[in-house]
Amino acid sequence: MPNYLIQLGRNTDLSAAEITAVNLRMGSPLRIQERRGEAVFAEAEGDGVVRTLCEQLGGSIRFAECLSHLANDALTPDTIAAELIQTPLFQSDEPLEKVVLGFSLIGDASHWGGKRKVYGLLHDAAGALKRILGERDVSSRFVLPDPQGDNLTLSGAQVDRNHLFKRGGEWFFHADPERGVTIAQTKWLQDYEAFSNRDYGRPQRDAKSGMLPPKLARMMLNLARTPETEMVLDPFCGSGGVLMEAALMGLHSIGVDKSPKAIKDASINGVWLQTRFGLGEPPHVIEGDAHKLRELFEPLFFDACVSEPDLGPPLRKPLAEDKFGEVIAQLSGFYTRALAEIRTVVRPGARVVFILPRFAVQGRKEHIKINMLGDIRLMGYTILDPGNGFQPATGRATLLYARPNQFVQREIFVLQA
Fold first, then answer.
1. Checking DSSP bridges between strand 39-43 and strand 3-8, what pairing results, if any?
2. What does the alpha-carbon distance between residue 148 and residue 161 come to, in Å, rounded to a whole number?
3. DSSP structure string for 172-216
4. How far is 117 from 409, CA to CA, in rounded Å?
5. 386: closest CA among 12, 13, 86, 90?
6. What is the CA radius of gyration of the chain?
7. Are 400 and 16 contacting, i.e. CB atoms less than 8 angstroms apart?
8. How far is 248 from 217, CA to CA, in rounded Å?
9. Is 34 helix (H, G, I), strand (E, B) or coil?
10. How far is CA 228 from CA 37, 64, 129, 175, 344, in A?
C-alpha cells in the first residue's frame, strides 16, 4: 500500500484535526500512521483516494507520495540525485526530452546546518541530477525556493507558473534529524487561487461585517460535519463566508445577522457564488438577533452550527491590563447568551464550532484566553477533543488559528449539544 505525506498549513494543530475529522467521516480511507511536525504520514490505496480527501480540506497545502528514504549520514548531492533518477518519472518507457523540476523541503533542517545549508545541498543535488539527465540527452531546468524566505517550500504560484505538474514534477523532501530525509513526489496542490478569489474576489468584503477567511470557514465546517449533517446555522454570518463554503460542500445553510448591511453583503456574495459555480440556489440569510434564535426557528432545527461572533474591539497594540478585564466581562456575557440560544435550535448531538478571541495584553508574554469552559459545560455542551488525543498549543481541547504578531487570535471550540 503506497505511503503518503500531507503537508499541513500554518496552523498545524488545526490542519491535522481537520484531516482526522474528514478521514473519519469518509470511513477512514487513510491509515494515518503519525504526525511529524508539519506533516501527516499515512497509507492509502492510491493517489485518487488521497486526492478525494484532500480536495475537501481547507488547511492542507499539498500531498506527496513517499518514494524513498535517505539516512542522515548518506545525504549528499550525489546520493539525492541517484535516488531521484530511480523514481517513476525517469524510469518510464516514454521518452523524455525536456523536464522542469521543483524542489521543496519541510521539517527540521538543523541536523544539516539549517535551511541555508540545506538549500545549498538541494542546489548541488539539482546540478548532479542535471548532469545525469544531460548524459541521457534530456534537457532540464530546476526551480528552487527562495533561500531568503522563512521556508524552503515552493509556493502554489511558483508551481503553476513553471508548469511543474505538466512538464516534470515537484520533489518534496521531509527532514527529520533522527530519521533522515523522506523523498516524495507531489501529487496534489491546494487550489490557492480559488480560495483567494472567494476571499478577495467576492463582491462584498467588509471587515466590520465579517472577514472569516474561506480556508478557516472550510476547516470549521469540516470539524462540525458528520455523515448526517445537512443543514448548518451561522448566527453571526457577516458577509457570508461560512455560508459560501457550506454551499460548495453541498450543505444547506442559513445565516443570521442583526446588521442590515451584513445581510445585504451576504446576499450579494451568495448570488455571486451561485452564478460563478452554477449552484441551485444561493444560501439563505435572515436579519435577526443571535440571542433570539428561538423566535426565528423551530426547536432542534439544525444539524450543526459554525460561527465566528464579534471578537471585540479591533486592536493596533496589546490591550492595557485594566481594559482587558472590562472587555472580557462584556464579551463573556455576550458569548454565553449566544451559545445558550444556539443550544435551543440545534438537534441533540449536533456539533457547534465556535470561535472565541485570545488577546495580547501589555506586560504578558502569551495571549490571554477567555475562561468559559465551566459555563459551556453548564449549558449542556460536551467539549470535544478535535486533536484526537494530541495536546494542542492552546494547552486545552481547543485549536488556534493565528498569524504571527496578531493582537487578537482565534481560539476554536468544537462542542457537542
1. antiparallel
2. 20
3. EEEEETTTEEEEEEEEEE--HHHHHHHHHSSS--BGGGB---HHH
4. 34
5. 13
6. 24
7. no
8. 11
9. strand
10. 32, 31, 51, 40, 19
Q: Are 4 and 210 in contact (CB under 8 A)?
A: no
Cell 484535526 -> residue: 17
Classify 296 as helix, strand or coil. Answer: coil
Higher pLDDT residue, 167 or 54?
A: 54
Residue with cell 487578537: 408
Contact by Cβ (8 Å): 131, 94: no
Confirm if 345 and 301 have CB atoms less than 8 A apart: yes
Burial (Cβ within 10 Å: 0-12, 13-18, ≥19) of residue 412: buried
Whole-number Å distance between alpha carbons of 103 and 412: 34
Q: What is the pLDDT of residues 283-310, one digit of tens each?
A: 999 999 999 999 999 999 999 999 999 9
Tell me: the pLDDT tens digits for 98-107?
Answer: 999 999 999 9
Q: In sequence order, what are the beta bridge partners of 8?
A: 60
What b-and-e string marks burial along 226-259, b requiring 16 or more CB atoms within 10 Å of the CB?
A: eeebebbbbbbbbbbbbbbbbbbbebbbbbbbeb
